[in-house]
Amino acid sequence: MEMTVAAPPPPTIAEDLKRRYFASPLQALVSLFSLAVIAFVVWKVLNWAFLSAVFTASGGPEACHAAAGACWSVIAERWRIILFGLYPFEEQWRSALACVAVVAMTVLSCIPAFWTGRRLAVVWVAGTALFYVLMKGGILGLPYVGEESWGGLALTLFIFVTTCLIGFPLSICLALMRRSDLPWISRTTGLIIDSVRSLPLITILFTFAIVLPFALPQWLQGDKLYRVILGSALFFSAYQAEIVRGGMQGVPKGQEEAARALGLGYWRSVSLVLLPQAMRNALPATINQFVISFKETSLVVIIGFFEILASGNAAYGTGEWRFAYVEVYVFIALIYFVFVFSLSRYGAYLERRMAVGER
């Protein structure tokens, strides 16, 4: 007759805390000191951000000078400049709707019911077209607003979305070309990818914005904004191509051989067998690349675009609000955090759904 030994009960919360942080007198002292430092920092931040802060713009800058906390009055007074930049004041509702259209397009793309090529194409084409019509106007009774007047959050989202929309398909093409059996194709593609990856993004943006017009005829130059987007998309595609190629290398060789044995041609084996598994393998790095690309949109401020960071600089640039730059940057950082954290959490959801890392 076999004897079974009952497993010990799991430790309580108090026992677990004692084992982790108060196992010895020295460890208890370090834990209490760390807790005191954390409590002090949290209290200082809460006192500055909320308890002693000024939230209304009625008192103006003078009320902020008299207070000991944050001056959120600058946000209440200058939020339009931060979010809309140089966009005409009476037309800023269009910029707000354009941002809503981009967010709605992104949310719909994240819903599994839309995960087919046709549905995603409809969502992205319709969302991008709606954004462009709202921002530029010139039709449907909307006044025309040139790209030079675009700014704020709408411009940041436009650069990010179009960069990914152009760069992601291009990255797949580059990854497939680098794996080509023809040496002149694979080596040329590898040279292009490695050359782009060896340059900082700001160099590529500056080249496409300033230098490229000297090498192109007038009819081919286009607007500076679209040249910058093409440069950003090229940079994105070079890094993403290596991520996709790494995902392809993680697919067992037998998968391709089995596809060929079933009579599938090159394109069908790539689209139905190789790429789905490769994208699954490359999912964590792909989400990370999207996050990096969103944050890198702030670099366009160096070449003269009025995106959300430049708009924030203008919000406190006047003499009366010059002291409130910390509050402005905290507000902008919060906007970046909302978008980046949402991307990261969605990536974690996809990893759980697809069981990435599990075999």
From TrEMBL:
It is found in: Cell inner membrane; Cell membrane. PROSITE patterns: ABC_TM1. Gene3D superfamilies: MetI-like. The keyword Transmembrane applies. InterPro entries: AA_ABC_transptr_permease_3TM (IPR010065), ArtM/GltK/GlnP/TcyL/YhdX-like (IPR043429), MetI-like (IPR000515), MetI-like_sf (IPR035906). Residues 153-347 form the ABC transmembrane type-1 domain. It comes from the Bacteria. Keywords: Cell membrane, Membrane, Transmembrane, Transmembrane helix, Transport. It is a multi-pass membrane protein. Its main location: membrane. It holds the Pfam family BPD_transp_1. The chain crosses the membrane at residues 21-43, 93-115, 122-144, 150-177, 198-219, 323-344. The keyword Transmembrane applies. Belongs to the binding-protein-dependent transport system permease family. HisMQ subfamily. This is ABC transporter permease subunit. It comes from Ollibium composti.
